[in-house]
Structure prediction request, 492 residues.
Amino acid sequence: MAIVLENVSKSFGKKKALKNINLSFEKGRIYGLLGPNGSGKSTMLKLMTGLTFPTNGTVTLNGHPVTRKSSEQVAYLTELDMFYDVFTVRETVNYMASQFADFNIEKAKELLQELTLDPTQKVRSLSKGNRGRLKLVTTLSRDTDAILLDEPFSGLDPMVRDSIINSLLKYIDFENQVLIIATHEITEIESLLDEAIAIHYGTVIGQESVETLREEQGLSVLQWFKQISREQGEG
Amino acid sequence: MNPMKGLLKKDYRISRQYFWIWTGVLVLALAAGIGLSIYASQPAGTLPVLVLTSFVHFAFAPVFMLSLLNLESKTQLWLYTPRRGIELILSKFGVIFSYQVVLQILLSFYAAFIIFWFGREVYEPISFRLFLEAAVLLNALLLMVGFYLTTWLTFLWTVFHSLKNLAKTIRWIIVIGTVFLYNIVESFLLSLKPIKNLINKFNVEVISEAALSYKDEQWSVMFGSTDIPVLPLIYYALLMVILITAASKLLEQKVEV
Prediction:
Protein backbone atom coordinates (compact mmCIF):
# COMPACT_ATOMS: atom_id res chain seq x y z
CA MET A 1 0.00 0.00 0.00
CA ALA A 2 1.34 3.37 -0.97
CA ILE A 3 -0.21 6.74 -1.51
CA VAL A 4 1.92 8.91 -3.76
CA LEU A 5 1.53 12.59 -4.57
CA GLU A 6 3.62 13.69 -7.54
CA ASN A 7 4.03 17.37 -8.41
CA VAL A 8 0.58 18.04 -6.98
CA SER A 9 -0.83 21.54 -6.99
CA LYS A 10 -4.33 22.55 -6.05
CA SER A 11 -5.92 25.94 -6.59
CA PHE A 12 -9.27 27.30 -5.49
CA GLY A 13 -9.83 30.21 -7.82
CA LYS A 14 -6.77 32.41 -7.53
CA LYS A 15 -5.76 30.92 -4.18
CA LYS A 16 -3.12 28.20 -4.33
CA ALA A 17 -3.86 25.70 -1.56
CA LEU A 18 -1.02 23.31 -2.45
CA LYS A 19 2.13 24.00 -4.45
CA ASN A 20 4.08 21.25 -6.18
CA ILE A 21 3.80 18.59 -3.47
CA ASN A 22 5.82 15.37 -3.74
CA LEU A 23 5.12 12.87 -0.98
CA SER A 24 4.89 9.14 -0.52
CA PHE A 25 3.11 7.28 2.29
CA GLU A 26 3.93 3.63 2.97
CA LYS A 27 1.95 1.04 4.91
CA GLY A 28 2.95 0.19 8.46
CA ARG A 29 3.81 3.80 9.29
CA ILE A 30 2.04 6.65 11.06
CA TYR A 31 2.45 10.07 9.49
CA GLY A 32 1.65 13.43 10.98
CA LEU A 33 0.76 16.25 8.60
CA LEU A 34 1.57 19.26 10.70
CA GLY A 35 0.81 22.87 10.00
CA PRO A 36 -1.26 25.84 11.05
CA ASN A 37 -4.90 26.28 10.03
CA GLY A 38 -5.21 26.94 6.31
CA SER A 39 -1.86 25.40 5.44
CA GLY A 40 -3.37 22.83 3.05
CA LYS A 41 -3.48 19.74 5.29
CA SER A 42 -7.20 19.06 4.76
CA THR A 43 -6.92 19.62 1.01
CA MET A 44 -4.12 17.05 0.91
CA LEU A 45 -6.24 14.45 2.71
CA LYS A 46 -9.22 15.18 0.45
CA LEU A 47 -7.00 14.62 -2.59
CA MET A 48 -6.00 11.22 -1.20
CA THR A 49 -9.64 10.28 -0.62
CA GLY A 50 -10.87 11.41 -4.04
CA LEU A 51 -13.14 14.09 -2.62
CA THR A 52 -11.25 16.74 -4.52
CA PHE A 53 -9.01 16.57 -7.59
CA PRO A 54 -5.56 18.04 -8.25
CA THR A 55 -5.21 21.08 -10.51
CA ASN A 56 -1.81 19.72 -11.60
CA GLY A 57 0.10 16.53 -10.89
CA THR A 58 -1.14 13.08 -9.89
CA VAL A 59 -2.30 11.35 -6.74
CA THR A 60 -2.09 7.56 -6.84
CA LEU A 61 -3.15 4.79 -4.53
CA ASN A 62 -1.31 1.51 -5.09
CA GLY A 63 -0.28 2.79 -8.50
CA HIS A 64 -3.78 3.79 -9.64
CA PRO A 65 -5.01 7.38 -9.91
CA VAL A 66 -7.24 8.33 -6.99
CA THR A 67 -10.93 8.67 -7.94
CA ARG A 68 -14.20 8.77 -5.98
CA LYS A 69 -14.06 4.98 -5.99
CA SER A 70 -10.81 5.11 -4.02
CA SER A 71 -12.87 5.78 -0.90
CA GLU A 72 -13.37 2.00 -0.95
CA GLN A 73 -9.76 1.66 0.19
CA VAL A 74 -9.44 4.78 2.31
CA ALA A 75 -11.18 5.44 5.62
CA TYR A 76 -11.44 9.18 6.15
CA LEU A 77 -12.39 11.17 9.20
CA THR A 78 -13.22 14.73 8.27
CA GLU A 79 -12.78 17.74 10.46
CA LEU A 80 -16.34 18.76 9.58
CA ASP A 81 -19.50 17.06 10.76
CA MET A 82 -20.48 14.55 8.14
CA PHE A 83 -23.60 13.17 9.70
CA TYR A 84 -27.28 13.25 8.89
CA ASP A 85 -28.84 14.87 11.93
CA VAL A 86 -32.09 12.89 11.64
CA PHE A 87 -30.23 9.60 11.97
CA THR A 88 -29.66 7.83 15.25
CA VAL A 89 -26.17 6.59 16.12
CA ARG A 90 -27.20 3.08 15.02
CA GLU A 91 -28.65 4.32 11.72
CA THR A 92 -25.42 6.20 11.03
CA VAL A 93 -23.37 3.05 11.61
CA ASN A 94 -25.77 0.95 9.49
CA TYR A 95 -25.65 3.47 6.66
CA MET A 96 -21.85 3.42 6.60
CA ALA A 97 -21.94 -0.38 6.74
CA SER A 98 -24.24 -0.45 3.71
CA GLN A 99 -21.91 1.75 1.66
CA PHE A 100 -18.55 0.18 2.46
CA ALA A 101 -17.99 -3.54 1.98
CA ASP A 102 -15.05 -3.46 4.40
CA PHE A 103 -17.10 -2.01 7.24
CA ASN A 104 -16.77 -4.31 10.23
CA ILE A 105 -20.07 -4.09 12.10
CA GLU A 106 -18.77 -6.13 15.04
CA LYS A 107 -15.87 -3.74 15.47
CA ALA A 108 -18.34 -0.85 15.31
CA LYS A 109 -20.48 -2.37 18.09
CA GLU A 110 -17.39 -2.87 20.19
CA LEU A 111 -16.24 0.70 19.61
CA LEU A 112 -19.72 2.09 20.42
CA GLN A 113 -19.65 0.26 23.70
CA GLU A 114 -16.10 1.27 24.50
CA LEU A 115 -16.70 4.93 23.70
CA THR A 116 -20.01 4.80 25.62
CA LEU A 117 -22.20 5.89 22.75
CA ASP A 118 -25.91 5.10 22.96
CA PRO A 119 -26.97 3.55 19.61
CA THR A 120 -30.54 4.82 20.02
CA GLN A 121 -29.55 8.46 20.52
CA LYS A 122 -30.27 10.92 17.73
CA VAL A 123 -27.17 12.42 16.10
CA ARG A 124 -28.63 15.91 16.47
CA SER A 125 -28.72 15.53 20.24
CA LEU A 126 -25.11 14.34 20.57
CA SER A 127 -22.59 16.60 22.26
CA LYS A 128 -19.56 17.75 20.30
CA GLY A 129 -17.42 15.21 22.10
CA ASN A 130 -19.79 12.37 21.23
CA ARG A 131 -19.99 13.48 17.62
CA GLY A 132 -16.18 13.26 17.58
CA ARG A 133 -16.40 9.76 19.05
CA LEU A 134 -19.00 8.71 16.46
CA LYS A 135 -16.76 9.95 13.66
CA LEU A 136 -14.02 7.77 15.07
CA VAL A 137 -16.34 4.75 15.26
CA THR A 138 -17.35 5.05 11.59
CA THR A 139 -13.73 5.50 10.53
CA LEU A 140 -11.99 2.86 12.64
CA SER A 141 -14.65 0.21 11.95
CA ARG A 142 -13.44 -0.09 8.40
CA ASP A 143 -10.81 -2.69 7.54
CA THR A 144 -9.02 -0.49 5.00
CA ASP A 145 -5.37 -0.16 4.07
CA ALA A 146 -5.31 3.57 4.71
CA ILE A 147 -6.80 5.68 7.49
CA LEU A 148 -6.81 9.45 7.16
CA LEU A 149 -7.75 11.56 10.16
CA ASP A 150 -8.31 15.28 9.72
CA GLU A 151 -8.01 17.19 12.99
CA PRO A 152 -9.38 14.33 15.11
CA PHE A 153 -8.99 16.38 18.31
CA SER A 154 -10.50 19.61 17.09
CA GLY A 155 -12.61 21.21 19.83
CA LEU A 156 -12.61 18.10 22.02
CA ASP A 157 -11.91 18.01 25.74
CA PRO A 158 -8.89 16.07 27.17
CA MET A 159 -11.05 13.09 28.20
CA VAL A 160 -12.31 12.60 24.66
CA ARG A 161 -8.81 13.13 23.26
CA ASP A 162 -7.50 10.37 25.50
CA SER A 163 -10.25 8.00 24.46
CA ILE A 164 -9.47 8.72 20.80
CA ILE A 165 -5.78 8.00 21.28
CA ASN A 166 -6.60 4.77 23.13
CA SER A 167 -8.96 3.66 20.36
CA LEU A 168 -6.32 4.42 17.73
CA LEU A 169 -3.79 2.31 19.61
CA LYS A 170 -6.24 -0.53 20.08
CA TYR A 171 -7.99 -0.70 16.72
CA ILE A 172 -5.35 0.17 14.17
CA ASP A 173 -3.40 -2.63 12.57
CA PHE A 174 0.00 -0.96 12.68
CA GLU A 175 1.59 -3.64 10.50
CA ASN A 176 -0.79 -3.42 7.59
CA GLN A 177 -2.35 0.02 7.63
CA VAL A 178 -1.01 3.45 6.89
CA LEU A 179 -2.29 6.14 9.23
CA ILE A 180 -2.09 9.81 8.29
CA ILE A 181 -3.12 12.36 10.90
CA ALA A 182 -3.47 16.01 9.91
CA THR A 183 -3.40 18.32 12.90
CA HIS A 184 -2.09 21.54 14.31
CA GLU A 185 -2.20 20.05 17.82
CA ILE A 186 1.20 18.42 17.62
CA THR A 187 1.79 17.41 21.23
CA GLU A 188 -1.36 15.28 21.25
CA ILE A 189 -0.07 12.88 18.61
CA GLU A 190 3.67 13.17 19.00
CA SER A 191 3.97 9.84 20.81
CA LEU A 192 2.14 8.03 17.99
CA LEU A 193 4.12 9.30 15.01
CA ASP A 194 6.75 7.57 12.93
CA GLU A 195 7.19 10.46 10.57
CA ALA A 196 6.41 14.16 10.70
CA ILE A 197 5.68 16.30 7.66
CA ALA A 198 5.52 20.06 8.10
CA ILE A 199 3.36 22.11 5.76
CA HIS A 200 3.50 25.86 5.53
CA TYR A 201 0.95 27.62 3.31
CA GLY A 202 0.71 24.90 0.69
CA THR A 203 4.36 23.88 0.63
CA VAL A 204 6.11 20.99 2.37
CA ILE A 205 8.86 22.64 4.39
CA GLY A 206 10.20 19.57 6.14
CA GLN A 207 9.90 15.81 6.55
CA GLU A 208 11.67 13.87 9.27
CA SER A 209 11.56 10.53 11.00
CA VAL A 210 10.47 11.16 14.58
CA GLU A 211 13.07 8.71 15.85
CA THR A 212 15.85 10.55 14.04
CA LEU A 213 14.60 13.85 15.42
CA ARG A 214 14.69 12.56 18.98
CA GLU A 215 17.86 10.53 18.87
CA GLU A 216 20.08 12.50 16.50
CA GLN A 217 18.85 16.05 16.91
CA GLY A 218 17.43 15.81 20.42
CA LEU A 219 14.29 17.61 19.35
CA SER A 220 10.64 16.95 19.98
CA VAL A 221 8.34 17.18 16.95
CA LEU A 222 6.96 20.45 18.27
CA GLN A 223 10.45 21.94 18.71
CA TRP A 224 11.43 20.80 15.23
CA PHE A 225 8.23 22.22 13.74
CA LYS A 226 8.74 25.58 15.47
CA GLN A 227 12.34 25.70 14.30
CA ILE A 228 11.60 25.09 10.62
CA SER A 229 8.56 27.35 10.69
CA ARG A 230 10.77 30.12 12.08
CA GLU A 231 13.39 29.50 9.39
CA GLN A 232 10.66 29.59 6.78
CA GLY A 233 9.41 32.89 8.17
CA GLU A 234 12.91 34.37 8.12
CA GLY A 235 13.62 32.98 4.67
CA MET B 1 -27.93 -4.27 3.51
CA ASN B 2 -26.96 -3.74 -0.13
CA PRO B 3 -25.55 -0.30 -1.04
CA MET B 4 -28.51 0.83 -3.18
CA LYS B 5 -30.95 -0.17 -0.44
CA GLY B 6 -28.77 1.76 2.01
CA LEU B 7 -28.86 4.85 -0.21
CA LEU B 8 -32.63 4.62 -0.67
CA LYS B 9 -33.20 4.16 3.05
CA LYS B 10 -31.02 7.15 3.80
CA ASP B 11 -32.80 9.31 1.20
CA TYR B 12 -36.22 8.35 2.59
CA ARG B 13 -35.01 9.05 6.09
CA ILE B 14 -33.62 12.52 5.37
CA SER B 15 -36.61 13.58 3.29
CA ARG B 16 -39.63 12.11 5.02
CA GLN B 17 -40.19 15.12 7.26
CA TYR B 18 -40.43 17.42 4.21
CA PHE B 19 -42.82 14.95 2.58
CA TRP B 20 -45.18 14.89 5.58
CA ILE B 21 -45.21 18.68 5.73
CA TRP B 22 -46.02 18.90 2.00
CA THR B 23 -48.75 16.23 2.32
CA GLY B 24 -50.23 17.99 5.34
CA VAL B 25 -50.46 21.29 3.49
CA LEU B 26 -52.02 19.54 0.47
CA VAL B 27 -54.66 17.76 2.56
CA LEU B 28 -55.52 21.04 4.28
CA ALA B 29 -55.86 22.81 0.91
CA LEU B 30 -58.12 20.05 -0.47
CA ALA B 31 -60.23 20.02 2.68
CA ALA B 32 -60.48 23.81 2.57
CA GLY B 33 -61.73 23.52 -1.03
CA ILE B 34 -64.56 21.26 0.07
CA GLY B 35 -65.29 23.34 3.16
CA LEU B 36 -65.52 26.58 1.22
CA SER B 37 -67.65 24.96 -1.50
CA ILE B 38 -70.10 23.72 1.13
CA TYR B 39 -70.11 27.14 2.80
CA ALA B 40 -70.85 28.90 -0.55
CA SER B 41 -73.22 26.12 -1.70
CA GLN B 42 -71.16 25.95 -4.90
CA PRO B 43 -69.72 22.42 -5.32
CA ALA B 44 -67.89 23.61 -8.45
CA GLY B 45 -65.67 25.63 -6.13
CA THR B 46 -63.61 22.46 -5.71
CA LEU B 47 -62.39 22.74 -9.30
CA PRO B 48 -60.03 25.73 -8.84
CA VAL B 49 -58.56 24.00 -5.80
CA LEU B 50 -57.98 20.80 -7.77
CA VAL B 51 -56.46 22.68 -10.73
CA LEU B 52 -54.24 24.81 -8.51
CA THR B 53 -52.96 21.96 -6.33
CA SER B 54 -52.36 19.80 -9.42
CA PHE B 55 -50.50 22.66 -11.07
CA VAL B 56 -48.30 23.12 -7.98
CA HIS B 57 -47.25 19.47 -8.35
CA PHE B 58 -45.36 20.27 -11.54
CA ALA B 59 -42.93 21.95 -9.15
CA PHE B 60 -42.96 19.24 -6.45
CA ALA B 61 -40.15 17.05 -7.82
CA PRO B 62 -37.72 19.89 -8.73
CA VAL B 63 -38.30 21.72 -5.42
CA PHE B 64 -37.81 18.49 -3.50
CA MET B 65 -34.68 17.58 -5.44
CA LEU B 66 -33.18 21.03 -4.87
CA SER B 67 -33.78 20.82 -1.12
CA LEU B 68 -32.21 17.33 -0.98
CA LEU B 69 -29.18 18.37 -3.05
CA ASN B 70 -28.65 21.44 -0.89
CA LEU B 71 -28.92 19.32 2.23
CA GLU B 72 -26.27 16.94 0.88
CA SER B 73 -23.97 19.78 -0.13
CA LYS B 74 -23.76 20.84 3.52
CA THR B 75 -21.87 17.65 4.44
CA GLN B 76 -19.27 15.56 2.70
CA LEU B 77 -20.94 12.30 3.46
CA TRP B 78 -22.89 11.96 0.21
CA LEU B 79 -19.85 12.04 -2.06
CA TYR B 80 -17.60 10.06 0.28
CA THR B 81 -18.68 6.79 -1.25
CA PRO B 82 -17.47 4.31 -3.83
CA ARG B 83 -20.95 4.33 -5.38
CA ARG B 84 -21.25 5.71 -8.91
CA GLY B 85 -22.78 9.12 -9.51
CA ILE B 86 -25.74 7.58 -11.32
CA GLU B 87 -26.60 5.50 -8.24
CA LEU B 88 -26.49 8.57 -5.99
CA ILE B 89 -28.80 10.49 -8.33
CA LEU B 90 -31.17 7.63 -9.11
CA SER B 91 -31.69 6.96 -5.43
CA LYS B 92 -32.99 10.51 -5.00
CA PHE B 93 -35.11 10.25 -8.16
CA GLY B 94 -36.60 6.98 -6.87
CA VAL B 95 -37.54 8.49 -3.52
CA ILE B 96 -39.04 11.65 -5.05
CA PHE B 97 -40.88 9.58 -7.67
CA SER B 98 -42.54 7.47 -4.97
CA TYR B 99 -43.58 10.61 -3.05
CA GLN B 100 -44.96 12.21 -6.20
CA VAL B 101 -46.96 9.07 -7.08
CA VAL B 102 -48.52 9.03 -3.59
CA LEU B 103 -49.47 12.71 -3.86
CA GLN B 104 -50.91 12.26 -7.35
CA ILE B 105 -52.97 9.28 -6.22
CA LEU B 106 -54.32 11.49 -3.45
CA LEU B 107 -55.20 14.17 -6.00
CA SER B 108 -56.82 11.59 -8.31
CA PHE B 109 -59.00 10.30 -5.46
CA TYR B 110 -59.98 13.86 -4.70
CA ALA B 111 -60.87 14.41 -8.39
CA ALA B 112 -62.98 11.21 -8.43
CA PHE B 113 -64.67 12.24 -5.18
CA ILE B 114 -65.69 15.69 -6.46
CA ILE B 115 -66.70 14.55 -9.95
CA PHE B 116 -68.70 11.44 -9.03
CA TRP B 117 -70.04 12.29 -5.61
CA PHE B 118 -69.54 15.71 -4.03
CA GLY B 119 -70.12 17.76 -7.23
CA ARG B 120 -71.94 15.20 -9.40
CA GLU B 121 -74.80 17.63 -10.06
CA VAL B 122 -72.59 20.39 -11.41
CA TYR B 123 -69.75 18.50 -13.11
CA GLU B 124 -70.39 17.35 -16.69
CA PRO B 125 -71.18 13.62 -16.44
CA ILE B 126 -68.40 11.38 -17.78
CA SER B 127 -68.01 7.61 -17.63
CA PHE B 128 -65.70 6.13 -15.02
CA ARG B 129 -63.65 4.56 -17.82
CA LEU B 130 -63.09 7.98 -19.45
CA PHE B 131 -62.14 9.38 -16.05
CA LEU B 132 -59.60 6.59 -15.54
CA GLU B 133 -58.08 7.10 -18.99
CA ALA B 134 -57.79 10.83 -18.40
CA ALA B 135 -56.42 10.32 -14.89
CA VAL B 136 -53.71 7.93 -16.10
CA LEU B 137 -52.67 10.22 -18.95
CA LEU B 138 -52.73 13.45 -16.96
CA ASN B 139 -50.85 11.82 -14.09
CA ALA B 140 -48.24 10.48 -16.50
CA LEU B 141 -47.92 13.96 -18.00
CA LEU B 142 -47.59 15.55 -14.56
CA LEU B 143 -44.88 13.06 -13.64
CA MET B 144 -43.04 13.53 -16.92
CA VAL B 145 -43.02 17.31 -16.76
CA GLY B 146 -42.03 17.26 -13.09
CA PHE B 147 -39.18 14.86 -13.73
CA TYR B 148 -38.09 16.62 -16.91
CA LEU B 149 -37.65 19.81 -14.85
CA THR B 150 -35.94 17.81 -12.07
CA THR B 151 -33.47 16.35 -14.56
CA TRP B 152 -32.55 19.83 -15.77
CA LEU B 153 -32.26 21.07 -12.21
CA THR B 154 -29.97 18.17 -11.21
CA PHE B 155 -27.81 18.69 -14.29
CA LEU B 156 -27.51 22.45 -13.70
CA TRP B 157 -26.77 21.88 -9.99
CA THR B 158 -23.86 19.62 -10.89
CA VAL B 159 -22.64 22.14 -13.49
CA PHE B 160 -22.76 24.91 -10.86
CA HIS B 161 -20.89 22.83 -8.29
CA SER B 162 -18.35 21.59 -10.85
CA LEU B 163 -17.19 25.14 -11.42
CA LYS B 164 -16.13 25.68 -7.83
CA ASN B 165 -12.94 27.38 -8.95
CA LEU B 166 -14.82 30.21 -10.64
CA ALA B 167 -16.47 33.20 -9.03
CA LYS B 168 -20.14 32.68 -8.10
CA THR B 169 -21.35 35.31 -10.59
CA ILE B 170 -19.58 33.54 -13.46
CA ARG B 171 -20.99 30.20 -12.36
CA TRP B 172 -24.52 31.65 -12.41
CA ILE B 173 -23.91 33.19 -15.85
CA ILE B 174 -22.79 29.80 -17.19
CA VAL B 175 -25.82 28.01 -15.68
CA ILE B 176 -28.34 30.57 -16.94
CA GLY B 177 -26.49 30.76 -20.27
CA THR B 178 -26.81 26.98 -20.69
CA VAL B 179 -30.59 27.15 -20.25
CA PHE B 180 -30.84 30.17 -22.55
CA LEU B 181 -28.70 28.55 -25.26
CA TYR B 182 -30.66 25.31 -25.10
CA ASN B 183 -33.95 27.17 -25.50
CA ILE B 184 -32.65 29.09 -28.51
CA VAL B 185 -31.55 25.85 -30.19
CA GLU B 186 -34.84 24.13 -29.36
CA SER B 187 -36.92 27.07 -30.62
CA PHE B 188 -34.92 27.15 -33.83
CA LEU B 189 -35.42 23.43 -34.41
CA LEU B 190 -39.14 23.73 -33.71
CA SER B 191 -39.44 26.52 -36.27
CA LEU B 192 -38.25 24.21 -39.06
CA LYS B 193 -41.16 22.98 -41.18
CA PRO B 194 -40.08 19.31 -41.57
CA ILE B 195 -39.71 19.03 -37.79
CA LYS B 196 -43.08 20.70 -37.22
CA ASN B 197 -44.70 18.19 -39.55
CA LEU B 198 -42.95 15.28 -37.90
CA ILE B 199 -44.01 16.37 -34.43
CA ASN B 200 -47.69 16.47 -35.34
CA LYS B 201 -47.67 13.11 -37.07
CA PHE B 202 -48.66 10.98 -34.08
CA ASN B 203 -51.07 12.28 -31.43
CA VAL B 204 -53.12 11.00 -28.52
CA GLU B 205 -56.34 12.64 -27.37
CA VAL B 206 -56.73 13.43 -23.66
CA ILE B 207 -59.05 15.40 -21.43
CA SER B 208 -56.95 18.43 -20.81
CA GLU B 209 -59.24 21.15 -19.57
CA ALA B 210 -62.16 21.73 -17.28
CA ALA B 211 -64.02 25.01 -17.63
CA LEU B 212 -66.46 26.63 -15.25
CA SER B 213 -69.74 27.90 -16.69
CA TYR B 214 -72.45 29.87 -14.89
CA LYS B 215 -76.13 29.31 -15.67
CA ASP B 216 -79.32 29.72 -13.58
CA GLU B 217 -77.35 30.90 -10.52
CA GLN B 218 -75.31 27.71 -10.56
CA TRP B 219 -71.68 27.05 -11.51
CA SER B 220 -71.05 23.89 -13.50
CA VAL B 221 -67.98 22.24 -14.98
CA MET B 222 -67.48 21.23 -18.64
CA PHE B 223 -64.60 19.11 -19.91
CA GLY B 224 -62.61 19.59 -23.12
CA SER B 225 -60.03 17.43 -24.87
CA THR B 226 -56.84 18.09 -26.76
CA ASP B 227 -54.31 16.22 -28.88
CA ILE B 228 -50.87 15.55 -27.42
CA PRO B 229 -48.06 14.76 -29.91
CA VAL B 230 -46.13 11.57 -29.09
CA LEU B 231 -42.73 12.21 -30.71
CA PRO B 232 -41.74 15.12 -28.45
CA LEU B 233 -42.40 12.85 -25.47
CA ILE B 234 -39.83 10.40 -26.83
CA TYR B 235 -37.41 13.25 -27.52
CA TYR B 236 -37.75 14.62 -23.98
CA ALA B 237 -37.29 11.13 -22.50
CA LEU B 238 -34.02 10.81 -24.44
CA LEU B 239 -32.93 14.28 -23.36
CA MET B 240 -33.58 13.28 -19.73
CA VAL B 241 -31.33 10.24 -20.11
CA ILE B 242 -28.57 12.42 -21.57
CA LEU B 243 -28.89 15.04 -18.81
CA ILE B 244 -28.87 12.45 -16.02
CA THR B 245 -25.84 10.72 -17.52
CA ALA B 246 -24.00 14.06 -17.80
CA ALA B 247 -24.97 15.01 -14.24
CA SER B 248 -23.69 11.64 -12.96
CA LYS B 249 -20.35 12.08 -14.71
CA LEU B 250 -19.97 15.61 -13.36
CA LEU B 251 -20.85 14.41 -9.87
CA GLU B 252 -18.25 11.68 -10.05
CA GLN B 253 -15.44 13.57 -11.73
CA LYS B 254 -15.87 17.28 -11.16
CA VAL B 255 -18.03 18.11 -8.15
CA GLU B 256 -15.78 18.67 -5.16
CA VAL B 257 -16.42 19.01 -1.48
Q: What stands out?
A: The first helix of chain A runs from residue 41 to 49.
